[in-house]
């Protein structure tokens, strides 16, 4: 039955080559921890992706309860945390996943750096990877405000002061992020929500797509 | 169709060199050593590693509930901001004299800009063919220096935080009492005590303690309001004796309410 469905689609769309591009490739010995245990350093990139998937899924469920306005944001998080079945687990996954993903992306960056894996012909993939790192930090920064507790509010105020200190464009940058040159308030929360849930994930997906296509195209770097 | 031994690639990638570019991946037999098919052999092992990782992650989630502090209060002047841990190094950097006040641009733009700019452009700064860390000492030592400074700054920042005091900011430490803002005692409270002890007697970390769950009776509360205690100076209360009585009765009634409820919901460590 499944084979028939596959054949029906394949006859029309010729999906077998796509499938081959995604999954049908060899894993060289030097990256396989089954052969060399030290090759576990090659896991960090995959684990980063794994935690990113956790972040996306848990984040989607969080938006079912979260209300991005300053009157209800904190109340909705508290309600989710204390009243909703498994709400504490889902929020916990998103909260701790944010930290774990930073750890994993950091370790992955160090692995690639110290192995010199960014050298020709993989310069562009390194550039995309560093951009992914920045997007991840941006997601961390914007997500921190959303519970609208004291920690969130005051840390964001500090972050916006840092943005403001940038020469020439600082004031405009702060206004762009906060929605107002002075006030950190309702507009700020709405903007950070939009950035956290729409803008940065869009950038994240595009960059991740580029990252993976380049890996498949270039293969993993050879042994040292 | 060209495959296998005759092909030339860009570096050790699978992108064919211009002359032999025909988009066909390298033949399996061309890889050195014991290769393994990604699907399904290797993916099965990856799946197992992922499952173990997920279990560990869920243990973390179950063991450490994500924190939530008290609702944002922009008027809380005594709150000490603390960013998420992966921004602590930047936060700590801005405390150094050469990176603060009039030199803040150095701390916010110049140093992070140079560090992250160099990271971004690493492939174009470190262009040699060598890949081993020991064969490219400049790149390796700069990276080690960067990582060491980030770890050091983060450590310094964490060590400087009074975590016990911060625990008081948590939402769990807000006593669950209903405050009758129409009570005459609350009017007296709001004129004399609210600026330090907060609008719902929750206190102000580092400045004034919360007033729910205090071990004092009405007479002692009156005495403290007039004569002060500990860091609290005398004569904070300005009013008549009748108002002082109303104030003490109000605070006592809130405490009685809290201790009555506290036994029920199990959150009575404070008493």
Automatic annotation (TrEMBL), chain A:
Keyword Cell membrane tagged: yes
Spans through the membrane: 39-67, 96-114, 126-146, 193-215
Cofactor(s) needed for function: heme b; heme c
SUPFAM superfamilies, alphabetized: Transmembrane di-heme cytochromes (SSF81342)
Database matches in Pfam families: Cytochrome_B (PF00033)
Localization per record: Cell membrane
One of the record's GO molecular function terms: oxidoreductase activity
A GO biological process held by the record: respiratory electron transport chain
GO cellular component: plasma membrane
Residue stretches making up the Cytochrome b/b6 N-terminal region profile domain: 5-224
UniProt entry keywords in alphabetical sequence: Cell membrane, Electron transport, Heme, Iron, Membrane, Metal-binding, Transmembrane, Transmembrane helix, Transport
Recorded topology in the membrane: Multi-pass membrane protein
Purpose: Component of the menaquinol:cytochrome c reductase complex.
PANTHER family given in the database record: CYTOCHROME B
SUBUNIT field: The main subunits of the menaquinol:cytochrome c complex are a Rieske-type iron-sulfur protein (QcrA), a cytochrome b (QcrB) and a cytochrome c (QcrC).
Name by which UniProt lists this protein: Menaquinol:cytochrome c reductase cytochrome b subunit
Species of the source: Tenuibacillus multivorans
Automatic annotation (TrEMBL), chain B:
Biased composition (Basic and acidic residues): 14-26
Superkingdom of origin organism: Bacteria
InterPro entries: Cyt_b/b6_C (IPR005798), Cyt_b/b6_C_sf (IPR036150), Cyt_c-like_dom (IPR009056), Cyt_c-like_dom_sf (IPR036909), Cytb/b6-like_sf (IPR027387), Cytochrome_c550/c551-like (IPR051811)
Record's subcellular location: Membrane
Subcellular location, principal: membrane
Record GO cellular component, one term: membrane
Domain Cytochrome b/b6 C-terminal region profile: 28-155
Span list, region Disordered: 1-26
Record domain Cytochrome c: where: 180-255
Listed transmembrane segments: 47-65, 103-125, 137-155
Keyword terms, alphabetized: Electron transport, Heme, Iron, Membrane, Metal-binding, Transmembrane, Transmembrane helix, Transport
Nucleotide-binding as UniProt keyword: no
Topology versus the membrane: Multi-pass membrane protein
GO molecular function: electron transfer activity; heme binding; metal ion binding; oxidoreductase activity
PANTHER family registered for this protein in UniProt: CYTOCHROME C-553-LIKE, MENAQUINOL-CYTOCHROME C REDUCTASE CYTOCHROME B_C SUBUNIT
Name of this chain's protein: Menaquinol-cytochrome c reductase cytochrome b/c subunit
Native source organism of the sequence: Tenuibacillus multivorans
